[in-house]
Amino acid sequence: MATRRPQDLVFTLFGDFLLQRAEPVWVGSLIALLKPLGLSDGAVRTVLSRMTAKGWLSSYRHGRNSFYELTRKGRRLLEEGKARIYDPPRDKPWDGSWFLISYSIPEENRQQRDHLRTQLSWLGCGSLGYGLRICPHDVGSEVAEVADAVGCRDNVEIFRAEHLGFCDEGELVARAWDLPAINARYEAFVSSHLPTYERFRADLEAGLLQPESCFVQRFALVHEYRDFPLIDPFLPAPLQPPDWAGDCAAALFNRFHDLLMPLADRYVDSALELALEATTIRSTA
Question: Which of 68, 72, 146, 185 has the fewest Cβ atoms within 10 angstroms?
Fold first, then answer.
């Protein structure tokens, strides 16, 4: 797995393994689950404390035991990310309309402007330069929410438009997004994970797979694939280049994830059950 910040690892753990679990998670469980990924006890406690201070997590104590859960802010971030990963807008029909977002934020508010740009990229908006972004999807309500959150509604305008000229759609897309670079990353993902998928599928059929190895592999798979919604605008099929590898990568990701899910979830369940026993013993000691 590529080196990542401890915070990124915690986000992946909560986003793909703990998001649908209603109960707060004991710190011992989080330590146990993050240990196979290279985080020490101290590193886990430090990052949990920092993420709590940033408002992503909330914590409480019961006796000598600490528990953590997502805040509303943290849950919303991960639910939006999950939707972009598992239900991207690429398959939605396109009527040929474009949404244009124009913004003009002065240099003294550069941090505000940078935040807006980041959020527009997350929504799949490409840049035409000079404070103008385009998107083939209806992102009007999302852009309004972002503008309000950033505090720059008075500096942003949204339009629904038809492209009348002068370049063709392919040239317009090439100006707004670096599709060759994104496609190269998709191709690298497929080349890297396809042989591993075939090996795990053979091991599953032979009854050789272990829950911990499935957990670690699923974590690595999701941790790498979760970057794509940050860079892929999920263009409608008519706008994609003919050699687009995004669909192949998505199919491989979903197949591999489904293969790993049962045993990986069993590993997480086991860690949470052991933690429950541990907290019961410690609370009564």
Answer: 72
Q: Would you say 133 and 100 are in contact if contact means Cβ atoms under 8 Å apart? A: yes
What distance in Å separates the CA atoms of residue 46 and residue 52, rounded to the nearest whole number? 10
Rounded Cα distance between 204 and 263, Å, is 10
Only one residue has tokens 């099929």, namely: 237
Pairing of strands 97-103, 65-70: unpaired
- Give 162's contacts (C-beta < 8 A, 6+ positions apart): 96, 97, 98
Specify the pLDDT at position 221: 96
Q: Read off the pLDDT of each residue in 256-275 and give the average, rounded to a whole number.
A: 92
pTM beyond 0.85: yes
pLDDT for res 145? 92
Strand partners, 61: 66
pLDDT of amino acid 281: 41
**3-state SS assignment for residue 233:** coil
* Confidence band for 175, pLDDT divided at 50, 70 and 90: very high
Q: Is 228 exposed, middle or buried (0-12, 13-18, 19+ CB in 10 A)?
A: buried
Identity at 7, one-letter amino acid code: Q
Give strand pairing partners of 157: 102
Place of tokens 């807006």: 116
Separation of alpha carbons 261 and 17, rounded Å: 9
Q: Tokens 């469980």 identify what position?
A: 29
Quick one: which of 230, 238, 229 has its CA closest to 98? 238
Nearest by Cα to 140 from 98, 78, 79, 88: 98
